[in-house]
Amino acid sequence: MATYAIGDIQGCHEELQRFLDRISFDPGRDRLWFAGDIVNRGPDSLAALRLVKSLGEDAVTVLGNHDMHLLAIAYSDAHQPRSKDTLTDILDAADAEELLEWLRRRPFFHHEADRGFAMVHAGLPPQWDLAESAQRSAELEAVLQGPDFRDFLEHMYGNQPDLWDSGLSGYDRLRFIINCFTRMRFVTPQGRLDLKEKGPPGSQPEGLLPWYAVPGRRTADDHIVFGHWSTVGEIHGHNVYPLDSGCVWGGALTGLRLDSDGGWISIDCRGYQEPGQK
């Protein structure tokens, strides 16, 4: 049995299929961890979503910002498709409701203590340990899976508040949590989010750090796989493993075997969008 964590697919179904062929994926024996952004910008979001859903108990999928964008378009009149979106096939599919309801019930954070790894799409603020990260994920999932989820989708976008406070409540609290799980890259040393800078580490203005490099981060000793940041490059130290290598931009679809022998797997991608449109 092998477990592989896989980075952002973004509708690149053909590349995902080649990845599964490369690892000789065996359902029932092997497991897959998907770091979010299954859909959007690539040529076949519908097939990618159907494939991941079809894996059932053989796969764990956390939600990314593009997955949430799809849900917001589908369930909230306040959000409309963008010019570069490739989500119409999902919204028009005969099984659209089944696919969307499945997606709505995915987690934002996953941790398996016996395996020694956790997974999130974007990142974790320095104030949270793994236990609190799991609690905040459960809190957010309860709302997204609950009867008032449409109201949440209408209020989830925005950059404020940008600093964690356990006293936050209502949509302010939920918005901070989802911004961490699905959007964060850079923060201040105090953990204040900067959601505008998208370049590689080293390109940011003074006073900002990659979320994983903040001194005193409470998950510094934990192994975390994440996606979302296609420009992050290699990371040495910090116990974090970036999986998004820009497949949809013509980079690669990257995976990491999470077993003791480890090992990276990379599938070349054609490129379907110009870089910089994450």
How would you portray this structure in words?
This protein is of the alpha/beta class. The protein has one domain (3-268): Purple Acid Phosphatase, chain A, domain 2, CATH 3.60.21. 29% of the residues lie in helices and 16% in strands. It contains eight helices and 13 strands. It has helices at residues 13-22, 45-54, 65-75, 88-92, 96-104, 130-144, 149-155, 170-182, and strands spanning 3-6, 31-34, 59-61, 109-112, 117-120, 186-187, 193-194, 209-210, 224-226, 240-242, 244-245, 252-257, 264-268. The strands form three sheets. Strands 1, 2, 3, 11, 12 and 13 form a six-stranded mixed β-sheet that branches. A four-stranded mixed β-sheet has the order 4-5-9-10, covered by helices on one side. The protein has a three-stranded antiparallel β-sheet with strand order 7-6-8, with no helix packed on it. Helix 6 packs across helix 8. The radius of gyration is 17 Å and the shape is globular. The mean pLDDT is 95.
Topology:
Elements: E1 3-6, H1 13-22, E2 31-34, H2 45-54, E3 59-61, H3 65-75, H4 88-92, H5 96-104, E4 109-112, E5 117-120, H6 130-144, H7 149-155, H8 170-182, E6 186-187, E7 193-194, E8 209-210, E9 224-226, E10 240-242, E11 244-245, E12 252-257, E13 264-268
Parallel strand pairs: 1-2, 2-3, 5-9, 9-10
Antiparallel strand pairs: 1-12, 4-5, 6-7, 6-8, 11-12, 12-13
Helix pairs in contact: 6-8
